[in-house]
Amino acid sequence: MATPCKSTTLRLIRLILGITLCGFILYGALTLYEYGMSPREVLVNLLIILISLTGKIGTVIILLPIYFAPAIVGWNRRHHSAIFATNLLLGWTLIGWAAALIWALAERDTSKLSQV
Fold this sequence. Notes:
Elements: H1 4-34, H2 39-67, H3 69-73, H4 80-90, H5 94-106, H6 110-115
Helix pairs in contact: 1-2, 4-5
């Protein structure tokens, strides 16, 4: 069960994101309406935009953990900051991603594990 502080923080973050999303939707509707579209056309275009945005966000949510897999695997390693930097800067080249993954799998720092 979440602590009250974390629960309140998460509720606040959700509220802010919800208000921001509603603001973007309202702004988009008003902009489309000013261009002479009927309310029905505005609604259809907003639904198309939301569906497109949802697909892109879903794709990013799926691909980011795959892209940062070397950094995630190397989290308990001695050079985890360098592995993350290599992954971030050179991961888009397949060779940089593979090098970061090999580096993450190569060494293991047991001092962090013994502290847990």
